[in-house]
Every structure is written in C-alpha cells, then in structure tokens.
C-alpha cells in the first residue's frame, strides 16, 4: 500500500503527539511493507505566526493531495485575545469544512485497568463501549456571527440534508455494532432540534427498521452518560452538543488524552485528530498522553487506507501497554511511575509484534 499523509502538528502539545503518531505509523509501515509518505504543513497559531493565516492555501493544497490528514491540536493563550482578527480555531473549522468531513466519530473505549483514573465508580464503567458521532460541518459553529457594543449573536442553522447524511452514517455504524442509536437534541427549546428529531425519526423508520432508536434531550443525555454509560451504543448529535458531550465522555476513559477521532465525509480522505486540545500548560514538557493521537492513527489506517489488520494491531498494542502498567501523568494513580510521551509511545511500539 502506498499513501500520502499530511501531518498538521499545530500548537501546544500538538507537535509532540503528532510525532508519536508518526513514529507508530512508520513502524507499522516498515513491518507491513507499506510506503507512507508524510508531508508536514502549518495550521493554527503556528500558521498565524508564520503567514498570518490559520489555514494557509499551501496547507489546504497539501491536504487536498493526500490520502489522509492527521492533526495534533490548535490554539493557545498566545492567540486567544478576543479582539484578535484571526484565531487558530478558524483554521481547524475551515479545514473540516473544506474537506467536507461531516461525520466525526469519537469512540469511547474504557480500559478496566484505568478505572481508578476515572472519577466514576468502577462498576459504572463495566461494559462501556460507546461511539459518539458528532455532526462536524454545520450548526452554530458555522452560522453567521454578529457583535456590536453590547450584544452578540451566533446563528445555528441545520438543513435537512445535513441531518440526513450524518444520521444515516451513525445508523449504519450502529447496524454493525449493537444496533442501538441514541439521538441527542434540545427539541423542547430549539427549532433546529425539532427538525433534527423529525428527520432522525423519518430516516430511522424508513431505512433502519432494524436499529433501535432512543431520543434524549442534551441535558438528560449529559446525566445519563454518567449514570448508565454502558447502556449506550452509538450516539448521534449536532456539532456543539457533540463537542461538549465527548469531553464529558472522555472521563469514562480516565482522560481526554485517551480519546481519538476520525472525521469522515464522502471521500476516503479523512481528518484524524485526538479529541484533546493543545494543553498549553504542559506543552514542551514531554508529558502529554500520546494514546489519543496513536489511536487516531489507527483510525486513519482503518477508515482512509483500509488497513484493518494494522489498525487493530495498534489498538491491541495500546491496550497491552496499558495492561502492563504504562501510564502518562494524566492516567497515573498514586504509586504509578509516570512515563514521558516518548516512553509511552515506545511502550506501545514495543507491543506491536
Ligand atoms: C474539538 C475542539 C474544537 C471544537 C476546537 C479546538 C475548535 O474542542 O475538536 O473538540 O470545538 O470542535
Ligand atoms: Mg472539543
């Protein structure tokens, strides 16, 4: 297999976790006889500093000529001035939009050895295996914004086709899992949510009679994620609810640093990123958890390159490293020795077989 991968390290711990993911991909490529070509390009604050633009045209061109795109993280205090003309996050949102990756898959896998790292009681975590599908290119993230002296507005718009395609995507994934889909909205308040619910009910009844549909309001969903996390299979929701609920869900796994994501659209070229942010407080210290990034690399092999065996080998290597007690600071409990980002990466690589 030959493939071109664009790496967008970005800001904060982004470069550190991107290096970890690249090392794992290179190891797998050598082992399995693939030729992976990597191109690094600028995004976010790093791109603003170098070019004034959080998503330079050269970066977008690289991504457009790739089989997959991997992103570390964007943002940080240096670029957070509310009056700044451009922000790092705009680069990421534009990239998602330009790549057309409307379905953001955020699997939440819980390792029983990390139960102590989660604030939840261990018995609640038993059997948790959920997949959040977050709509990624619509809603309040992309609506018109206004600001004057004493008011501001963010418009939330959803079109029927945007809801249909992401709900179909999520229901299709549920069909290959436990055949349960939970759609999350705020239909008691928001018109966009009432459309979301109507469309979801129709798509499920017309096309997915074999998938059981549950509907929850987002406030209740936030609670049920903690009180009965193992009852969920696939959850589908709009852009902002998905952003919020997946940070919450990451606590089931023990840390934001554990969760990967895959953003997919109509083409095979997906965008892969850990769900965590740039973590400026620990940037450059070599202590970031690379697991979310490495698991994102596994998703890249699976969804964009069709290399299922290599993808599951990486996932098994992460599980084996965790089972053997390898811990970065964010998932360590008292008495654990903390590994650096590179030592954790090597602990995973050494279990790749
Ligand atoms: C995420 C992040 C981004 C988002 C930020 C960095 C714009 O929080 O990927 O979850 O809100 O989508
Ligand atoms: Mg987020």
Structure overview:
There is one protein chain. The chain is an alpha/beta fold and 353 residues long. Helix content is 42%, strand content 18%. A hairpin with a 5-residue loop joins strand 11 and strand 12. The relative contact order is 0.16. A 10-stranded mixed β-sheet has the order 2-1-3-12-11-4-5-10-8-9, with helices on both faces. Strands 6-7 form a two-stranded antiparallel ribbon. It has 2 domains: 203 residues, 3-Layer(aba) Sandwich (Isopropylmalate Dehydrogenase), CATH 3.40.718; 134 residues, Isopropylmalate Dehydrogenase (3-Layer(aba) Sandwich). The site of 3-isopropylmalic acid (IPM) has 7 residues, from helix 4.
Biggest sheet: strands, sense, closure? 10 strands, mixed
Strand order of the largest sheet: 2-1-3-12-11-4-5-10-8-9
Approximate shape = globular
Low-confidence stretches: none
> How many structural units, i.e. domains?
2
The overall average pLDDT, rounded, is 97
Q: Which sequence of SSEs, written as H and E, runs from N to C?
A: EHEHHEHEHEEEHEHEHEHEEHHH
- Reading off the top of the CATH hierarchy, the class of the largest domain is best stated as Alpha Beta
How widely separated are the two ends?
Answer: 20 Å
Strand content: 15-25%
The CATH architecture designation of the largest domain is: 3-Layer(aba) Sandwich
Q: What is the β-strand count?
A: 12
Helical fraction: 40-55%
Radius of gyration: 20 Å
CATH topology of the largest domain: Isopropylmalate Dehydrogenase
Features:
single chain; 353 residues; alpha/beta; Isopropylmalate Dehydrogenase; 10-stranded mixed sheet; two-stranded antiparallel sheet; 12 helices; 18% strand; binds magnesium ion
């Amino acid at each position: 297999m030959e493939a071109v991968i664009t790496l967008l390290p970005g800001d904060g711990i982004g470069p550190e976790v991107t290096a970890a993911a690249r090392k794992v991909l290179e190891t797998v490529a050598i082992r399995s006889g693939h030729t992976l070509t990597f191109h690094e390009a600028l995004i976010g604050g790093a791109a603003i500093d170098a070019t004034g633009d959080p998503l330079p045209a050269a970066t977008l061109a690289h991504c457009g000529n790739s089989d997959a795109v991997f992103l570390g993280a964007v943002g940080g205090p240096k670029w957070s001035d509310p009056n700044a003309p451009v922000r790092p996050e705009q680069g990421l949102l534009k990239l998602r939009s330009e790549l057309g990756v409307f379905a953001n898959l955020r699997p939440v896998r819980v390792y029983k050895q990390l139960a102590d790292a989660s604030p939840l009681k261990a018995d609640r975590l038993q059997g948790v295996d959920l997949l959040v599908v977050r709509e990624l290119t619509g809603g309040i993230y992309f609506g018109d914004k206004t600001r004057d002296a004493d008011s501001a507005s963010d418009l939330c718009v959803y079109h029927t086709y945007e809801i249909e395609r992401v709900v179909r995507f999520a229901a299709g994934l549920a069909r290959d899992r436990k055949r349960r889909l939970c759609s999350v909205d705020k239909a008691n308040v928001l018109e966009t949510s009432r459309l979301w619910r109507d469309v979801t009910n129709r798509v499920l009844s017309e096309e997915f009679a074999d998938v059981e549909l549950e509907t929850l309001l987002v406030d209740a969903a936030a609670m049920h994620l903690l009180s009965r996390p193992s009852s969920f299979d696939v959850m589908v929701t709009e852009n902002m609810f998905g952003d919020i609920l997946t940070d919450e869900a990451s606590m089931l796994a023990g840390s934001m640093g554990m969760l990967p994501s895959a953003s997919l659209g109509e083409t095979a070229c997906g965008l892969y990123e850990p769900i965590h942010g740039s973590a400026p407080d620990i940037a450059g210290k070599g202590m970031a958890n690379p697991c979310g990034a490495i698991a994102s690399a596994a998703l890249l092999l699976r969804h964009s390159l069709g290399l299922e065996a290599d993808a599951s080998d990486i996932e098994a290597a992460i599980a084996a490293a965790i089972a053997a007690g390898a811990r970065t600071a964010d998932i360590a409990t008292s008495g654990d020795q903390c590994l650096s980002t590179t030592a954790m990466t090597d602990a995973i690589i050494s279990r790749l077989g």
